Amino acid sequence: MEMQPSARQMPDSIRIAGSITHLSADVCGAIALVGSHGGRAVALDALSRRVGALIVHDAGVGREDAGVAALEILQEYQVPCAAVSHRSARIGDADDMLVRGLISHANECSRLLGVEAGLKVRSALECLEGAVLEVPATGGVPTAEEGFRTIQISDKSRRQRGIFALDSASSIKPAHDGAIVITGSHGGLPGGADENVIKAPVFLAAFNDAGIGIDDAGISRLPVLDRIGIAAVTVDAMSARIGDGISTLLTGVISRANERACDLGARVGQFLLPLVEETNRLE
Fold first, then answer.
1. What pLDDT, in 10s, does the model give residues 27-69?
2. Which of 56, 99, 105, 170 is the most exposed place for a label (fewest CB within 10 A)?
3. Residues 202, 175: contact at Cβ < 8 Å?
């Protein structure tokens, strides 16, 4: 039986992580394969870490091509970037992307190195590994914080739970305990691990379904959150920009809901905003 490549077998120049926020600090000039979507926030994080090249998940591409926005942004800084099809590998699971993933999109820098749509991820990494990669300059590069906004929509009070719009679920904190958090993150499990499902016991959480994709990976957080008593929904990737919590809140249309969320009145096909407003008033 043929051995499948694993993260442990990769050369030192290649770093693999379920989320870009899980990368170690020493990635300057390295090639990073991450399970994150290819949205704006991920691009800014990659630039702040000065990675030499990046492969992300296309997250179903979605509204305004937000799932692959990183490719154009990184092209401006001459950083090769490519995205893996959501139909070929699970979002949030870089090991699965390495084994099964097929490239769906590539920016000009990566195409010049031989990375193109239809290529296996392993082959794309070989193309990048064989290239001389320029380390992005630090001057004029946006900070990661610019892409990971936390916006407080309403305060917690005796009669309201409080609503927070977060571009990334990685920004959830203990202070969000019991609140409603609307994220721009995908609804998959980062690193494919249940322990990464959420960082605080919020009351209701919303995510982008990332096109749902192979193995229903884009909605895999929902049953895990159900088991720990947290209501959760995803919105259709075509209805809201992935990586943008405000877009999730204002234009998101519910595509999936776990049992806890259904008990609160969540229904597939309805806009998310009315559910959030009603839930915020619940005692």
1. 999 999 999 999 999 999 999 899 999 999 999 999 999 999 9
2. 99
3. no
At residue 158, the pLDDT reads 65
Residues 138 and 22 in one domain: yes
Task: Choose among 37, 137, 122, 120: nearest CA to 79.
Answer: 137
Which tens digit of pLDDT belongs to each residue from 129-160? 988 777 766 666 666 677 788 888 887 776 67
Best CA proximity match to 85, nearest among 190, 184, 189, 214: 214
Q: Which amino acid is at 122?
A: R
153 occurs within a structural domain: yes
Contact 41, 66 (CB under 8 A): no
Task: Tell me what the mean pLDDT of segment 216-228 comes to.
Answer: 98
Question: What pairing do the DSSP bridges indicate for beta strands 81-84 and 231-235?
Answer: unpaired
The answer as to whether 206 is a domain residue is: yes
The alpha carbon dihedral of 269, 69, 148, 220 has a sign of positive
Domain with 195, as residue range(s), is 148-280
- Written as one letter, the residue type at 15 is R
Provide the domain count of the chain: 2
Residue whose tokens read 């990183």: 70
Distance of CA 173 to the CA centre of its chain: 18
